[in-house]
């Protein structure tokens, strides 16, 4: 094993710190563990880490269809990469070393049998410019199962090589400081992205926009800690600088507000993009709800019939609307539950529709324009406003436009009693394009995903840490008047939680800010 480099020393430090924390936690619980045992734990953990880190890993990085691909890409990363290239190409590694990051056409052989496996493009990336931060090579081979499996088998026979675990190339990129945790998460979301919005959202993490966002917050926290610590150290024989402390409080309060807004609004938008925005089509029976979902999906998702009460359960499907993933459902027509109902199934259907309406992001409320006059239709919809109050947005669709007189259509269009009213006909498609426009605009707003908007990629993991950041700032603020040291402790905890998000923790950063911003002679 080569000498531990700085990264690994940092890791040992982390492991020891982890174990010290574990030790104090166990002590708090009344369990006595000697420092010696804790150190053994730490070393064991480090050994495992080092063993994993120093092996060379390989894997098929492109997918492989059952009938094969035109091209398949196998990646090898780690200290034995050059040996692997050398063995496979009968000593052409010097050529690779001279031509880094260049596609070189090579014949690949099994070094034990001298069998030609394939003619392939080989690209060598030295550690400084590779994805993983280690020597890495890509073998672009013909994508048949026979070629890929032979090559994987041959590479596995090289000393120190083993198949990679899931996500291990990216994990190494993180451990080698090439990316932080948010970027790693972004990469996994980018691979899973199915819509334009999901791709854009993930890219904000991959390109480091999100890291910058968290780093800005972290910098503010470091400044606050630096100011507080300077006052703990220097204030005993001097008066506290009230003005400066007020500035610190202002900074901390506005940071806490910003994080809380991020938690309540921004993360919600990100969840909608990642998991899909939820839409329910609601309205009274027979107004055309099922006709509308079928029209949106361009297939027969739900049964349509002139019989009132045809849909009796939630019928759900997935859609891509304007580049956003949407989960949309048709529901049973809602009626007053105290009025006479057809049977228990209808009652259950209505209950399910009501429950769903309370959890979705957007409701499309359908009205039969041919049935009632405007006042009655609006009055009827008002009766259901309580059910729909949790939705962030409601779009009113006046359906069956083909059965409405021109005069009535004009009256609906001029009616300003509700925002987001669309008049259309599921039968003739008239008004449908305008409806899609309004729907897309509203989804855009709910997902907050215009190209230049702030970074909003967020996961449950980020949220968990951000709640703790916010709580610690709150505690820091409540203690700063009583005890600066305790206050600083809470801000340090807040900073630590923020560092968990990006995967970076260091106390040196705090010292840097102190010495940069303060003259020691003061
Ligand atoms: N003329 C006309 N008829 C329509 C239009 N949209 C729907 N219909 C008809 O209205 C009737 C009811 O349509 P559905 O889509 O089943 O209505 P629904 O709201 O799902 O009804 P329930 O499931 O019973 O609550 C069917 O006969 C449709 O063909 C339209 O735009 N114009
Ligand atoms: Mg229906």
Automatic annotation (TrEMBL):
GO molecular function annotations of the record: GTP binding; GTPase activity
Domain MnmE helical: 181-519
Protein's organism: Dinothrombium tinctorium
Gene Ontology annotations for the cellular component aspect, listed alphabetically: mitochondrion
Gene3D superfamilies (alphabetical): P-loop containing nucleotide triphosphate hydrolases (3.40.50.300), Probable tRNA modification gtpase trme, domain 1 (3.30.1360.120), tRNA modification GTPase MnmE domain 2 (1.20.120.430)
Record domain GTP-binding protein TrmE N-terminal: where: 56-178
PANTHER family to which the protein is assigned, alphabetical: TRNA MODIFICATION GTPASE GTPBP3, TRNA MODIFICATION GTPASE GTPBP3, MITOCHONDRIAL
One Pfam family, short name: TrmE_N
Subcellular location: Mitochondrion
Signal peptide: none
The keyword Mitochondrion belongs to this UniProt entry's keyword annotation: no
GO BP term (any one): tRNA methylation
Highest rank taxon of the organism: Eukaryota
Keywords for this protein: GTP-binding, Nucleotide-binding, tRNA processing
The name this protein goes by in its record: tRNA modification GTPase MnmE-like protein
Keyword Iron listed: no
Organism phylogeny: Eukaryota, Metazoa, Ecdysozoa, Arthropoda, Chelicerata
Family: Belongs to the TRAFAC class TrmE-Era-EngA-EngB-Septin-like GTPase superfamily. TrmE GTPase family.
Residue intervals of the G domain: 278-400
């Amino acid at each position: 094993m080569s000498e531990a480099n700085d990264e690994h020393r940092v890791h040992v430090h982390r492991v020891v710190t982890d174990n010290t924390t574990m030790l104090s936690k166990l002590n708090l619980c009344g369990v006595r563990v000697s420092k010696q045992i804790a150190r053994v734990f730490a070393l064991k953990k480090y050994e495992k880490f080092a063993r994993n880190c120093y092996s060379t890993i390989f894997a098929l990085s492109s997918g492989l269809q059952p009938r094969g691909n035109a091209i398949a890409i196998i990646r090898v990363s780690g200290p034995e990469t050059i040996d692997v290239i050398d063995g496979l190409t009968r000593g052409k590694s010097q050529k690779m070393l001279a031509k880094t990051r260049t596609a070189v056409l090579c014949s690949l052989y099994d070094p034990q049998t001298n069998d030609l496996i394939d003619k392939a493009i080989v690209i060598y990336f030295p550690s400084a410019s590779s994805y993983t931060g280690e020597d890495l090579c890509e073998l672009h081979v013909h994508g048949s199962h026979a070629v890929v499996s032979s090559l994987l088998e041959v590479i596995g026979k090289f000393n120190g090589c083993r198949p990679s675990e899931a996500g291990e190339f990216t994990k190494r990129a993180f451990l080698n400081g090439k990316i932080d945790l948010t970027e790693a998460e972004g990469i996994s979301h980018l691979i899973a992205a199915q819509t334009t919005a999901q791709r854009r959202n993930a890219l904000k993490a991959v390109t480091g926009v999100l890291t910058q966002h968290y780093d800005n917050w972290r910098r503010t926290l470091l400044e606050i800690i630096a100011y507080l610590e300077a006052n703990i150290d220097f204030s005993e024989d001097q008066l506290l600088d009230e003005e400066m402390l007020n500035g610190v409080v202002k900074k901390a309060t506005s940071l806490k507000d910003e994080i809380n807004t991020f938690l309540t609004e921004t993360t919600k938008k990100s969840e909608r993009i990642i998991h899909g925005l939820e839409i329910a089509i609601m309205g009274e029976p027979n107004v055309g709800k099922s006709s509308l979902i079928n029209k949106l999906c361009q297939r027969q998702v739900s049964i349509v019939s002139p019989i009132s009460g045809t849909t009796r359960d939630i019928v759900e499907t997935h859609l891509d609307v304007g580049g956003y993933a949407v989960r949309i459902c048709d529901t049973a027509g809602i009626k007053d539950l105290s009025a006479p109902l057809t049977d228990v199934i209808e009652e259950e259907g209505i209950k399910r529709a009501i429950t769903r309406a309370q959890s979705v992001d957007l409701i499309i409320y359908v009205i039969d324009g041919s049935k009632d006059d405007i006042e009655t239709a609006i009055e009827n919809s008002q009766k259901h406003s309580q059910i729909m109050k949790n939705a962030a947005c409601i779009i009113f669709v006046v359906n069956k436009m083909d059965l409405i007189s021109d005069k009535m259509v004009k009256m609906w269009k001029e009616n300003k009693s509700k925002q987001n009213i669309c008049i259309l006909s599921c039968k003739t498609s008239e008004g449908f394009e305008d409806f899609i426009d309004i729907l897309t605009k509203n989804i855009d707003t709910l997902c907050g995903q215009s190209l230049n908007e702030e970074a909003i990629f967020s996961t449950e993991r980020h949220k968990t840490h951000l709640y703790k950041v916010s709580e610690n700032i709150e505690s820091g603020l409540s203690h700063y008047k009583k005890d600066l040291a305790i206050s600083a402790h809470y801000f340090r905890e807040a900073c630590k939680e923020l560092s968990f998000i990006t995967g970076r923790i260091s106390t040196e950063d705090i010292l840097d800010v102190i010495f940069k911003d303060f003259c020691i002679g003061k």
